[in-house]
User: Fold this.
Amino acid sequence: MTQKKTKKTTGRKKAPAKKNTPKVPTEATIVEESTEVYTTPRRSIAFIGSECYPFVKTGGLGDVMYALPKALVKQNCDVKVILPRYKCIPWKYQEKMIYKGAFDMNLCADGRSYYVGIMEYVWDGVVYDFIDNEEFFGGEKPYINLIDDIPKFCYFAKAALAALNYMDWIPDIIHCHDWQAALVPVYLRTLFEGTRLSSAKTILTIHNLRFQGIYNIPTIQYWSGLPDYVFNKDALKEGYEDANMLKGGLTYSNVITTVSNTYAGEIQTPYYGEKLDAHLRYHSNKLRGIVNGIDYDIWNTYTDSRLYANYDITNVLDKKKENKRNLQEELGLVQDDHKFVIGLISRLTDQKGLDLVNAIIPEIMDEHTQIVVLGTGDAVYEDSFRYYENAYKGNICSNIMYDETRAHKIYAGADALLVPSQFEPCGLTQLIAMHYGTVPIVRETGGLKDTVEPYNMFSNTGNGFTFDNYDAGLLLDAINRAKTLYFTNRWCWDEIVQRDMDKNFSWDNSAKQYKDLYLELTW
Ligand code: ADP
Assistant:
């Protein structure tokens, strides 16, 4: 398919404030869309993963499972997404699902069999098939604890393949995501060998290496019903008595991808490798990194109905102030558009570098600065952010919740967004922030390093402020550099804002790279 480039205004001057109305596609853009020609052959892909926006999402994996299939449809791909039918999927989606059939499937080592229902939902050219079994997916949340989740995802991996066979939908590629779907390649090359499905090639994408699905061998062997020989040290076996589902998937898949080039290199080192670095080095010839994009239909400053005021690159400087003032008002902060507002939208876990943030909040806070936190996670961080909200009333607001609408408002209303992660496979929040004209302050790791070019005051280039070692002092230094520019050279700051908005983070580039990979595997 020919890659289209969205033309954007690069003008840097402030435009007069415009009326707050979404952009209507012009005749030129309509013509451009209708003249799309596919230049690469069609391929069929089954996506298998444990979450997908808007049905169920706990983090970036959910975003990717939604946006990448949609982008692949535009790359001449036929995509089916296989997901668990969790009870917690909102009823407005459940009621539209169509029953496609059901069968019983042998699962456990003792031959115990389980019901597999298939419920289908078609949306935006993508077919979603939900695997239905209330015993496994009836919980209030998608993930509960390993004792429940190990059997659940053994069942899911096998049922996903059995469902494809049942529907007689034989894809060219089976693209699996994270440990929850990692047994798929293992099943395909063992219990499904010889079925029509075994002609498919497999890709396993690591969205976060920290989670691997590790439990003792007897439990995983019982629930998966996999043959003894896969529990050897080159495949599932880890240490003396454990089995590692992700490790098995890495061994049996044709290609391993992860979500940025830097992370693909990092995970082959002991520091980032989560004890799988040697295994990944061994398989490095089939490992590569493809950075994520963001969905431009959801993340569009011009049409985003959740914003107080819509904007584009020509009026961002004015409209961001309006968004900031409204955000301050809604969150009970002192309303002052001269304040430097720092946003933090994150799962509140160790991975995200929150111990660094906590350590320096008193030093960040002065009369010119405000902090807005949005996230849920470990009690230690939830409590400390609540404490700081109380200690700096009117200037820190801790939203300990998961709230999509509030996230959009913070991306638009903040001046800067903090992402000081210990490790970050790709990271979406810095991409969304830049797309919304909010300057990222990030640690140089994984996808943060690949997507945020450090600001260079001499050449006046770059997209954000960065620091390298995992150190609270260096984070403070990066925040202070950002603040200094903001308060002493607003012209250059505003240029960063406009440069960030002008950068292309759409899925088009990445989807093209995935399509090339599918073609390479099936040529
Ligand atoms: P991860 O997948 O490690 O959690 P990413 O940066 O890849 O991190 O993706 C996080 C996604 O989840 C982004 O879309 C971000 O806006 C969203 N998000 C994180 N926390 C919240 C929250 N509390 N409320 C709303 N959205 C959130």
Summary: The CA atoms of residues 61 and 207 lie 7 Å apart. The longest helix spans residues 146-167. Residues 59-60, 63, 345-347, 374-376, 402-404, 407, 426-429, 432 surround adenosine-5'-diphosphate (CB under 6 Å). The chain has a mean pLDDT of 93.
